[in-house]
Amino acid sequence: MKKTLGLLVVVAAAAAVCGVGKAKVSEAPAPSSGYVSPEFIVAAPDGGSVYVTSATGAHVQNVALDGKTLRKWKVESTLVPNTPLNPSGIALSGGNIYVTCGVQAGELQKFALDGKLVKSVAVGHSPCSPVVSSDGKTVFVLNRFANRVSVVDAAEMKVATTVPVLREPFAAAIGAGGKLLFVANMLPYCAATNDVVAAAVSVIDTATKSVRNMLLPNGSTGVRGVCASPDGKSIYVTHTMGRYQLPTTQLERGWMNTAALSVFDGATGAYVNTVLLDDVDRGGANPWGVAVTADGKTLVVAHAGTCERAASSRAPRMCRTILRSSSRSAAASTWAAMVREAS
C-alpha cells in the first residue's frame, strides 16, 4: 500500500446555522482574515475549475486550478435577512449546481454555474450530501438527523417523496444503471447489548423507493464515505470497525479499532466483502473520503485521523475479481493483501 501525505477534501459534518436561504452573486473580494473551512468540492464541467463550499464562511467559491478565485457567492436566509447559512453538501449536473444548507429549516438550492440562484426548496432537517440521479431528473438529499432521504424533482425543485433509512445518513452514491442508491448510515441502529452491533448501508430502489438495509461487519461504525466505480458496478464504503468483543489489553496493531473498506455490488446491492486499510504498525485512523479515478484504475481513501491518503492502482482490479467470484473467500482480508493478490 502506498501512503503519501496530502489533503483530500471529503464529505464531513452537517451545517451549523439554521434557516432557508437564497444567494447573492458578487465578484470575489480579497481574501478575508476569517476562516473559510473548505469542505465539499465538485469539478466544473470543463475541468478547468472546481466549486468549493465553505463550512464556516457561508459561501460557495469557484476556484481555477491555479488557485485563482473566479467568483464566489454567499448563501443567505430568505426568512431572516442577511442571515448566512453554511453549505452542507454540493453536487453538479446538467449545468446546475445543487447545494444543501440549513439545519432545522434545511434547504436544497439550485444555482447556475455563475452562481445565480435558479430555485430553492425546503427539504427538512439537517440536509447534506446531495446526489443527482443518472438521468439528472432527481436529486436525493440526505436528512442526517431526521433519518430519511428527500427525493426532489430537479426541474420543478419540489420534494416528490421521502424515504426512511436507519440512523444518520451521511453519504450516498448511485449504482450501475442508476437503479440503486447506496446510503451510508453513520451509526448503528440497534441496542448496544445485541450480539451484532453494526452500522448498515441502506440500498434504495430509485424506481420503487423500496429499501434494503445491508449490515456491515460486526463492530462497524463511523461510516463516512461512499463512492461508485465509473461503471457503477462496484460501490466502496469507508468505515471503522470496533473490536468490542476483545478485552482491552492493548491498542496497538488494530487490537481495538481498525480502518476498513467494504465493497458492494452496484448492480444487485449485495454485500461483497470488507478489507482492512491499516498498516499493521501504523494504522490508518478515521477513513473518510473515498474516490475512484475517472479511468477506474485507482482507488483513493483519505484518512482524516492521520492526514494521509492511501492509493492503490491495483485495488479496483482486485475488487472486480471479488465481484466475479462466487465465494467471498476470494476476497483479501487486508488492503496490502488486496494489492498483492491483484499483482
In short:
With 343 residues, the protein is mainly beta.
Quaternary status = single chain
User: What order do the SSEs take from the amino end to the carboxyl end, as H and E?
Assistant: EEEEEEEEEEEEEEEEEEEEEEEEEHH
The CATH architecture designation of the largest domain is 7 Propeller
- Alpha-beta content class: mainly beta
How many helices in DSSP terms? 2
Query: What gap, in angstroms, lies between the N and C termini?
Result: 12 Å
Question: pLDDT average, as an integer?
Answer: 82
Tell me the CATH topology of the largest domain.
Answer: Methylamine Dehydrogenase, Chain H
Number of strands: 25
Low-confidence stretches are 1-33, 325-336, 338-343
Give a structural overview.
With 343 residues, the protein is mostly beta strands. It has two domains: 6-28 and 35-164, 7 Propeller (Methylamine Dehydrogenase, Chain H), CATH 2.130.10.10; 217-343, no CATH class. It is 5% helix and 46% strand. The chain contains two helices and 25 strands. α1 (315-324) packs across α2 (335-342). The radius of gyration is 20 Å and the shape is globular. The two termini are 12 Å apart. Mean pLDDT is 82; it is low at 1-33, 325-336 and 338-343.
